[in-house]
Amino acid sequence: MYNINNVALIPNLTKKGAYETSLEIIEILRKIGMNIFMHTNLRKSYRYDNIEYYDTTDELIGAAEIVLTIGGDGTIIHAARHAAPLHKPLLGINMGRLGYVAGLEPDELHMLRKLKTGEYSTEKRMMLRVIHKNADGVTEFYSINDAVISRGSLSRLIDIEVSLDRDYICHYRADGLIVSTPTGSSAYSLAAGGPVVEPTMKCIVMTPICPHSIFARSVIFSHSSELVITASCDDETEVFLTIDGAKTVIIKKNDSVSVTSSDLEAEFINLKDRSFYRVLNDKFAEKSDYK
Asked: Is 1 inside any structural domain?
């Protein structure tokens, strides 16, 4: 890979230890001759003369060659949604509990030097294109992890119908339904009993949430499939569509949600020679030891 000179640094300062870790990273990047770009709203927190600041996330990422985030998986996913249309690879420093998509832990920062020497690889991850159709029109979203149809906290079970390429295939009576990418298979889908899928594969994983059936299981579809989902909605039932655990919209009667693979891809940087399954095993070990 080519040597990197310009880095967009995106820290989530709400995470414990993120600020201290960011200062350490800035010193490492400066010593190896990197140009550091950050968001303007962080100017008062980082009083360095040689940091360039940008007013928007898209301007910040557009000016850099790679994106370096400091935070949990949510921080990485949020930045990756901005980086994907600009075709910029991303490396996450894990300041959360698990960090499935993070590339480094805080005690591995010395490996950042590999960015300057080109000792790294990249891998592309499939994304979802999610279209919400309602009486007001069409809204489009892009997801790296998942799109979730779910009931409100005080609502009863919801009836969900799913069509594949416009042909009806199944009905669920459940708390909700998760449609995930392979990357998202190790997130909410896994917690709901779904399979773990190697993240560089191209497929769509559908997992019901607490289905009222002994036969309901996850289903894996081709990446070329189109799923169309409708859910029961009345005065006593609140239904929501949530994208990557961040963006939420209300689903109303006669609304539909279609999910396909996207032409956009998220790209992640690897500095360590470890397989996904080794990472997964390590993370599960950390989770089981967590108190």
From this structure: no
Which of 73, 146, 175, 255 is labelled catalytic?
Answer: 73
240 Cβ partners below 8 Å, 6+ apart? 148, 149, 150, 151, 152, 248, 249, 250, 251
pLDDT, greater one: 286 or 166: 166
pLDDT, residue 277, reads 73
Residue 145 maps to which CATH number?
Answer: 2.60.200.30
d(CA 260, CA 198): 19
58 is a catalytic site residue: no
Beta strand 146-151 with 51-54 is unpaired
Q: Are residues 46 and 86 in the same domain?
A: yes
The residue range of the domain holding 224 is 127-263
Distance from chain centroid for Cα 201: 15
CA–CA dist 246, 238 (Å, integer): 18
Q: Are 174 and 159 in contact (CB under 8 A)?
A: no
Domain CATH for 26: 3.40.50.10330
For residue 283, pLDDT over 70 is answered with no
